Model the fold of this input.
Amino acid sequence: MKKNDQHLGHAGLTALSMVLLLTCGQTHAADDANPIQYKPSVGLYDFSSRGMPSKQAVDVNLRGSADWGDAWVGVYRSPTDDFTQARLGWDNTYKSFGVKLQPSLQTASGGFWGGSIGAEYGETFFFGAGIGRTNLRNYFNLNFDPNDAWSLSTGYRWSPQDFVTLQLVRDNRLNPDQQHVHLVYRRPFANQQRLIVDLIYKSGTSEGDYIRRRGLMLGYDWGDVGLRIAYDPRVNFSKVDMTRIILSKHY
Done:
């Protein structure tokens, strides 16, 4: 096998093993009070920039949620770049003395490792802070915020599913002037429907140029089915704009 083929082979085996683990967990947990809940999703990405042909990519994910938190497996594939990456992750929320602690861990083929820790205080009015660190290997994640960064957030909740949040995520390692500001509004409706709006303002140095751009994500849930449509200019502070569509289903 070529070196790249070995990486892709290990990635595929890792992804398959995680799917089997989650499936076995679902079987054993079927009689428990809190069985594992699944959320498969498929994302279609379109990358475009001036003077260059557009290219597409696909991202397939499976998330399992239970008392031990959330675990997920994902595979990203870009045929144009001949690039594939499989990833695994876990996160959870622990509550103590009015504080929510939110640790997470991620790994991916190609030798990537990373993690983060966040804390949030307050129920109606709330504020939080967090920090993330990686080993600087290539990683194609789903939030497109800087990974080696600190974050600050504040917001107001009318209910657990009805809230507005303002969040700042700023790189604090390789590119300390790169930052994202998110304004997120989530509103539930009747019949288990829900609207999600995420306005993003990004600023910082992008391949030698200082940029300021605005993006938008619109999401809507119909019961167990969810749809997300987003426009992310200069994604990951590159010269490429991204449009993505993500469809998900809860089980």
